[in-house]
Amino acid sequence: MDTPTSPTRLPRRKVLQWFAAAAAIDLTDLPSFAQSASATTGYGTDPDLTKVYSPGDVWSLTLSDPERKTTVALADLIFPADEFGPAASELHLVDFIDEWVSAPYPNQQRDRDVVLPGLQWLDEESNSRFQKPFSRLDEAQRTAICDDLCAERPATPDLAKGARFFERFKAICSGGYYSTPEGWAAIGYVGNVASGIFTGPPQEVLDQLGLEQTVKDG
Amino acid sequence: MPTIPISKAKPEYDVAIVGSGAGGGQMAYTLTLAGLKCVMLEAGRSYDPMTETAMFQTGAQAPLGGSSTPDKDFGFFDATIDGGWDVPNEPYTQASDKPEEQFKWWRARMMGGRTNHWGRISLRNGPYDFKPYSRDGLGFDWPVDYDTVEPYYTKVERLIGVYGSNEGLENTPDSPEGVLQPPPKGRVGDLMTQKAGKKIGVPVVPIHRAVLTKPLDGPTLAAKLHPDNKKAQKIVARSMIQRAPCFWATDCGRGCSIKANYQSTTVHLPPALETGNLDIIANAHAREILMGKDGKAKGVLFIDKISGKEERVKAKAVVLAASSGETVRILLNSKGGEGVANSSGLVGKYIMDTVGSNLKGQIPALENIPPHNDDGAGGSHFYSPWWEYGAQKAGRLDFARGYHIEIGGTRKMPRGTSPVPGDYTKGLYGTKLKEEARRYYGSFVGLACRGEMIPNEGSFAELDPDVKDKWGIPVMKWHWKWSDHELNMAAHAQDKFTELIEAMGGTALPNPKKPGAKSILQGGEIIHEVGGALMGHDPAKSVCNEWNQTWDVDNLFLCDGSPFPSNADKNPTLTIMALAWRAADHIIEEARKGNL
Ligand SMILES: Cc1cc2nc3c(=O)[nH]c(=O)nc-3n(C[C@H](O)[C@H](O)[C@H](O)COP(=O)(O)OP(=O)(O)OC[C@H]3O[C@@H](n4cnc5c(N)ncnc54)[C@H](O)[C@@H]3O)c2cc1C
Ligand code: SF4
Q: HEC profile for B47-77?
């Protein structure tokens, strides 16, 4: 019988070859962000389902080094190490996000069009407030920006735009973070283990909810 | 699954079966165990659930966390191969550009078809469901009644293994004592809904699903299923012993490598192959029925998708079980597009799906409850059978037929998308975000209406005069229409769901689509496509008789959902299998009489 396998630790991504060329381009030059992910196709309608995949296996990752740095910093602010579980960077979430925004599918391409300009915006905002890109800010500075994005009503239209990016980025991060066994522990998913019997919710849960198990043994 | 190339096919078979899903699988099983020589044509590739099923793989091991994409509509690990809402090289068209007048056509192109990933919900039609016209003057009666089909429901349940309970509820048949497997325990969402149902008069009971909750007693069951056939008993007993009971983990939609649930590839095809009477040809896309001058079917013309060449198999009888839409297509494309078995002009008419309408509720009592294993049997445990027969009879409802409610699990394995809707964590990040995500995770209960659609003149399929698939075969063009019965049903369901959610102390989430009648899902979306070649008593008003046998061509049988004259809220597959077994018995009988 199979047993649950442990999560794959993603190797640190090699800098993609084409990045060498892309790096020469001025990254503040917006049009370079507008280009869509490499014109690869997806995994098709008959992929090998039992293989273990790492980001980059099916389509190339496309985030630039500065974009990845900003992504790591922001993802760790959203998912820091705490009593619930490890930080996003310990789970290599940047690779998941890079895979997501580099995917050839329509939903992911739409997210790409939000995330790439969003990362760019975040660095511009950091530069104009603190004269450093987001990844080089200290925690208080990062928090200052993010608190503005999380305000009930962002103060300016520019911040409102940043807030939309922030929520979308967070949703993508959540998808990746909670798909790992560490994420399961953080959210309280228990399962994916074979067992000879299924006893239903534990008595303490039934008691708390005032429920009775109506399917009796037998 | 072992297959043969066309070059190894026999010059002639007793029966050629098109399609390897529920209908084709059941046919092959019954016919080959009785000694008939069969060839099965399957448009998809061969598939082995033992080695190809992703059982314990986690989202983190799949691209995009395993979330759905246009390549894999129901997620990366779903046991659908070369299928989905769009199938490569096989387009279909719509007569209208309005979504509410369109039919979404889900197809699988693989050995075992949709049975590899179906929901395994296996409900018997009740006595009312076979005679709907007699009860309310709408739609059509079946040429069979419940008592005629009952022995076949029992046979199928014994063979495939179905868990559930006998509740003695109206038009919700009990199975004979000892046939059902024990139902699994209620999960939190099930028990909450059950308790809320009690408050507002909606019964909530264990559902019936084709999942083993204990090992099958192979020898005893095989002796019951095949009393006078020692060889069949041996083969079937052995096949049953190879199936393990559910180990209470992993999603049945991925398929089951331990054979605990029903899929044609683990339950029907292995014993059929073991008889030595079945040859399966994969990648064989049936195009037409070969007709003789005597008006009888002589075999099947198909495209070998690997070579692209036209090939033929010959047989004394032909069974179509390609899923109802595709069976209709083959009938209409036969005789060079003139059509076969269509003297009534009814082939393609009266296509039905199930009425779908969903609502989610957020239940504060479920916030932050102690984490616990909610995986269960990899699909639903409880449901509400339709309970308002009385109100309907008294004319108190504005729709004629029933629906059942399916209850979604609460603490599911996250799969690449945020497990908590963004509204609940808006403006949060850091530890506070994790805290709130944990609080809300598992606090949502999903309720789904699955209801009866009444056949109507506006829902049908025909050949598209212009569009052809990759092999030059004309494709289906769909027409769709809901009547007020279905729309009013969806509105009723939304109201009931809101009541249920409120009785749990929760709040119904704003429906992402629209409230009331507008919440109805698109035609085809529930993937219970049936109809298109109705069975009946009168050759002028139906395409086949009670044996799934076409009136016009007496050695041609349709053994998927296409002969259904109605589509009760009971999911169709158990009935497809029961009728296929019955039709197979009829073919065996005719063969014994020398009538094939
Ligand atoms: C996600 C999902 C959940 C479902 N849940 C349930 C449920 O809980 N309960 C229930 O009762 N039903 C359920 N269904 C429906 C159920 O899957 C079908 O009713 C059942 O599989 C029908 O069996 P079939 O043999 O008619 O068709 P299929 O299982 O689709 O098999 C048809 C086979 O024919 C092959 N074929 C098609 N065209 C050709 C051709 N031209 N030549 C050769 N071969 C061809 C196909 O490749 C396929 O393998 C569900 C379906 C889906 C997709
Ligand atoms: S839940 Fe049970 S039946 Fe379903 S796939 Fe898992 S082991 Fe098999």
A: CCHHHHCCCCCCHHHCHHHHCCCCCCCCCCC
